[in-house]
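Support request from a user on the community tier.

User writes: "When I paste my structure tokens into the form, the page sometimes reloads and wipes my input. The last time it worked, I copied everything first. Here is what I submitted, just in case something in the input itself triggers the reload:"
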């Protein structure tokens, strides 16, 4: 077995092409996982058994701050299977499929429902990790179940939505990292589709395009256009999308903040809780567009940190800490990072 696994594991591999921040760190071992059989082979290698492991999809929600002394399991499991489940289409997708191309393919196949989540980078298998969301829709709303490889048990398990404990940019997987590898995700896409087009940016884009009764394709195109305008292309400036989550506060905290900062942007999320626009908080600290060496706060969207070229993960992390310190000092609010920080302790 050892002789066979030698061919499956590469050594001393640059991770620069495998993270959208474009940070140039190295991994001591790197294995491409295209099937469960391949995973089992790799996991049987004594060098892998003894080393830390990291499951990696498209690398669009991670920040490496130093070399990774362990084995990267790069998920490339393919496949799409559709089933008519009465009220919905049940679609099982391999974890290694690209998120955006699956969204587009399903719309082309007449199975809409994911169009608001168009152009989010990364893999299908990572989408449940932070319950990806954008423009009024979260993955959890279109989710049926998933299958994981449980490293501890050494077997496949199915998990329901309840077991995944989805919340705002959160799930059980964020709190129990590296215990399970998501093998595939099954979506439930409603056969009776209705548009989610009330999000301000989407509504404005559709109005501008004179679309009054949007189809899934219209929403898909609108979301793609908005995102292309607002977010930096990782191929130009390395980034991981929003670096911080929007903080959630109580009604009383919000009232106190509004008294002091009347233009504060916030959204009622029900239950007496409010989401504050983290981008507004950062902008109000005068940090939008701030440049620190080769790292910067993106000048068009303060929630995004960018690699201007050649920045290390540690430089980007130092900027993240500066942003957190400034927001804490001015507003008394903690900003939690969205991407997983690998190498140093998380910034919050
Ligand atoms: C320009 C840009 C825009 C973005 N916009 C959004 C947005 O609008 N909304 C949003 O929610 N996110 C957004 N993101 C963040 C990111 O795209 C998503 O979180 C995406 O789901 C990450 O996928 P990935 O395959 O790149 O994951 P990776 O970065 O490879 O991994 C992220 C985490 O998931 C784990 N993981 C990956 N695959 C698996 C698997 N198969 N099984 C178990 N664990 C796994 C990793 O260990 C890591 O902890 C954006 C990122 C960028 C660069």
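"...and here is what came back when it finally went through:"
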């Amino acid at each position: 077995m050892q002789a066979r696994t030698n061919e499956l594991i590469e050594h001393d591999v640059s991770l620069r092409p495998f993270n959208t921040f474009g940070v140039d760190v190295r991994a001591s071992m790197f294995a491409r996982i295209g099937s469960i059989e391949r995973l089992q082979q790799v996991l049987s290698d004594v060098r892998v058994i003894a080393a830390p492991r990291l499951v990696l999809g498209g690398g669009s929600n991670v920040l490496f701050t130093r070399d990774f002394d362990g084995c990267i399991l790069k998920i490339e499991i393919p496949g799409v299977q559709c089933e008519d489940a009465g009220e919905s289409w049940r679609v099982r997708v391999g974890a290694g499929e690209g998120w955006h191309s699956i969204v587009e393919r399903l719309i082309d196949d007449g199975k809409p429902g994911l169009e608001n989540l168009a152009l989010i980078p990364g893999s299908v298998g990572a989408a449940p990790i932070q319950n990806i969301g954008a423009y009024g829709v979260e993955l959890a709303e279109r989710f049926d179940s998933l299958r994981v490889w449980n490293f501890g048990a050494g077997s496949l398990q199915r998990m329901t939505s309840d077991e995944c404990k989805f919340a705002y940019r959160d799930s059980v997987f964020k709190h129990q990292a590296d215990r399970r590898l998501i093998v595939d995700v099954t979506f439930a896409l409603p056969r009776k589709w209705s548009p989610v087009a009330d999000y301000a940016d989407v509504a404005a884009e559709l109005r501008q395009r004179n679309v009054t009764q949007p189809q899934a394709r219209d929403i898909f195109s609108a979301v793609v256009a908005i995102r292309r305008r607002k977010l930096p292309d990782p191929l130009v400036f390395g980034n991981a999308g929003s670096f911080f989550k929007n903080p959630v506060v109580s009604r009383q905290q919000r009232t106190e903040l509004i008294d002091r900062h009347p233009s504060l942007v916030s959204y009622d999320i029900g239950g007496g809780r409010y989401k504050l626009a983290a981008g507004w908080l950062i902008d109000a600290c005068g940090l939008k567009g701030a440049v620190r060496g080769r790292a910067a706060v993106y000048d068009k969207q303060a929630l995004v940190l960018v690699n201007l070229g050649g920045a290390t993960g540690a430089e980007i992390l130092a900027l993240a800490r500066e942003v957190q310190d400034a927001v804490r000092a001015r507003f008394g609010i903690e900003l939690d990072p969205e991407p997983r920080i690998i190498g140093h302790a998380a910034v919050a």
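Agent notes: The reload is a front-end session timeout and is unrelated to the input. The mean pLDDT is 95. Residues 80-230 form a domain with the Uridine Diphospho-n-acetylenolpyruvylglucosamine Reductase; domain 3 fold (CATH 3.30.465.10). Escalated to web team.
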